Every structure is written in C-alpha cells, then in structure tokens.
Amino acid sequence: MVTQLQPDVRAYLHGAEVIKRYIRVEDVTQEYELSVEETEYIAKAAGSVYKLTRIHLVKKERLQRGSANF
After folding, report:
1. Is residue 55 a part of any domain in this protein?
2. How far apart are CA 56 and CA 3, in angstroms?
C-alpha cells in the first residue's frame, strides 16, 4: 500500500542541517546496501512507502523500526 504525500513535508531543519524524513528507494538501497527488491519488500512491510507525483519515497524512521524485525 502506498500513501499519497504532500511535497512540503519531506524534510525538517535541525539547526543549519536539513534532515530528510523521506528518501528515494534508490538512496535506501545505497545506504543500507540492499537490492531494490529487498528494499521495496521491507519498506512495504513496514508501511513506509509514500507516493509523490512520479516518485516513491521511503520514510526513514518507519523503515528503521520495520527493518529491525527482519
């Protein structure tokens, strides 16, 4: 299941640093060294896949909680 996401909630400021809440599936594969299929499976199981126009994003916090079960 994919949730529709508004474009203005993708990141928040922490001091001068921008911390991304939502990242692209491709970035998750590089960060966690997983294949695209594994990333999509874990993200969907954790309920962390969100959809913008033509882009699928993953909520980092929810993915990390969900991947702890795998």
Report:
1. yes
2. 9
Comparing CA positions, the residue from 46, 70, 14 lying closest to residue 25 is 46
Structure tokens at 43: 């993200």
| Number of residues in the chain | 70
- Residue 4 pLDDT more than 70? no
The position carrying tokens 């969900």 is 66
CB 28 within 8 A of CB 68: no
Pairing of strands 49-52, 3-4: parallel
Residue 28: helix, strand or coil by DSSP?
A: helix
Domain span at residue 25? Answer: 19-68
pLDDT tens for 19-70 read 778 889 999 999 889 899 998 898 999 889 988 888 888 988 888 887 776 6
